Amino acid sequence: MTHVPLVEVTRGANGVDTVECVHYGSVAVVDAQGRLRYAAGDPSFLTFSRSTLKPFQALPFVEGDGVAHFGLTQSELALLCASHSGESFHVDGVKRLLSKAGCDEHHLQCGCHVPTFYSATGKRAPADLKPTPLHHNCSGKHAGFLAYCVQHGLPLDSYLDPDHPLQRRIRARVGDVVGVDGDTLPLGIDGCSAPNYALPLDKLAAAYARLAASDNGAFSTLFAAMTQQPEMVSGTARNDLAFMRMAPGDWVAKIGADGVQTIGVRCAGLGIAIKVVDGNMRALYTAAVAVLKALGLVDSPEDTGLAPWAAPVVKNARGTRTGVVRPVVELKRVA
């Protein structure tokens, strides 16, 4: 199968719009038993999981009793799964997490970038801002990596090496979750320099169905942290925060760079994975809202907290309307 149109972007004037861009991709909707229920395009498309992998990268830490060992709060645990915005409460949380492990920001190997808060809110970053690794959206995940290494007496300086014992353990657990040999998963290096893996889109959806459905063990612990502390996982004006606030304690949402979105829906026993093949994030957000509507999980997203992504109007630098981002995804029932 091939990718299909998910989102169109129009441009026009005098009330007449013409399609200017078409963003193609695929969708897989899978139940908790791993059965493909709905699809668009190629539901088995091999997709680098990017930051949607974070809850599963945290499994060894949680399963190794790291939460109790370091006395982590639920908000600190949520940071292990976060692509946070680098807001003060995120940075402070990562500092606490590192301190509990006897580490500091100098141990982080994620690099640094301007906090996502500014692009998400449209605010201008202060001229004197000096980002540190604490502001990196993945710093919580890296702090969790370091804590695991401290607890288990593993080297800190090589914690991102794919052959490091932690990364081997993560690879094995990811394989377990999706039902394949972890060593056969295509390996890549993520934007934060951590190992990342490509998965068939339906396998990624199944992982989120499992995350949402589990009522005990590490999956349940991570689901609770993410859904009860969504502001730690995401940030102000971010779509994942809006998704999780739409259905508190029921929807778990996680974006990944270059056009990946995952959502687990506990009440429906479903996992959703979306890939916009050109990596366009604007299109991704609109496609995700459209999929939720198509599944009957939200009736009128334009009247909810999802309105900014439902069918956003495109404006130019003067504030003049130039077009609209509109979903065209068509889900087909499979089983």
Automatic annotation (TrEMBL):
GO molecular function per UniProt: hydrolase activity
A Pfam entry, by short name: Asparaginase_II
InterPro entries tied to this protein: Asparaginase_II (IPR010349)
PANTHER family documented for this protein: L-ASPARAGINASE, PUTATIVE (AFU_ORTHOLOGUE AFUA_3G11890)-RELATED
Protein name: Asparagine amidohydrolase
